[in-house]
Amino acid sequence: MSAIDAAEATELNLNVVDPKKKRFRNIRSYWDLYLIMLPGILYFLVFKYLPMWGVVIAFQDYSVFAGIWDSEWVGFQHFRDMFADDDFYTIFRNTLLISVYKLVWGFPGPIILAIMLNEIRHMLYKRSIQTLVYLPHFLSWIIVGGILINVLSPSSGIVNKVLGLFGIEPIFFLTSEDWFRTVIVASDIWKEVGWGAIIYLAAIAGIDPQLYEAAIVDGAGKWKQIIHITLPSMMGVIVILLLLRLGHVLDVGFEQIFVLYNSLVYDVGDVIETYVYREGIQQAKFSFTTAVGLFKAVIGLVLVALANRGAKKLGQEGIW
């Protein structure tokens, strides 16, 4: 055997390594990265995956005293009760409408804001604007709710005072069925649009500057650069975030609704989260509300699977 053949054989033997040894060697080499991952993994195991065992009570007449093992098995009875409840259809409609409104009006918001911030060249001004639009995300809905109640007050709120200057009668925004959903959607966009723009700004930062230089040489203005370079380069991130958002299409946000709604707007503002709170916590119907939650999760899973399949057919990567 020549020296060259011996070297090739040695290299081949080195490449054929036992997978277990290779995995162990990889962990030893990057132990610090795995250590950083550990809290996130534990979070999902403890708070996301282990509680999934409790879904079984959706098929039981669960009793706190009997526990999961000894509670009576009732099969799909709670699901039949759910679909037989006339109030559930109203609540499902409210949840779907508010969620769709948030998706249609709120999802493009961070994209537009990120593109606008990217066009600002004065760094001090840009950072000041970023700070102002990020800040509402860190406020709890209790604080935001208090602000909205005062700002939209029909007697002392600044909004109605401005409307009064134009001869418009005071509007009871938080007790009007015509305005309540608008307030919910608008306040959610105001609170989260800045935070959502962070990911899109990162995607824009990864675009090759030479593409813009070439476009300028070809005579393309800012608008054409955005249409033909910025948006296509962001499309992968946009699709992934849209798919993830569809998985939470029935998650309107309990805290926001609970803080702002009242009995006068139940017909348009009562959603699945508040329904589960009243039925599950206040009336101790744990099995019934678990069935409602499972139904909501299945809807989200189906939507994500269908949207992911559609994204792949359109040439995008998708989630899996």
TrEMBL record:
This is Sugar ABC transporter permease. Belongs to the binding-protein-dependent transport system permease family. It is found in: Cell membrane; Membrane. The lineage of its organism: Bacteria, Bacillati, Bacillota, Bacilli, Bacillales. Keywords: Membrane, Transmembrane, Transmembrane helix, Transport. The keyword Transmembrane applies. GO terms for biological process: transmembrane transport. The chain crosses the membrane at residues 30-50, 103-120, 132-152, 226-244, 286-307. PROSITE patterns: ABC_TM1. Residues 92-307 form the ABC transmembrane type-1 domain. It is a multi-pass membrane protein. InterPro entries: MetI-like, MetI-like_sf. GO terms for cellular component: plasma membrane.
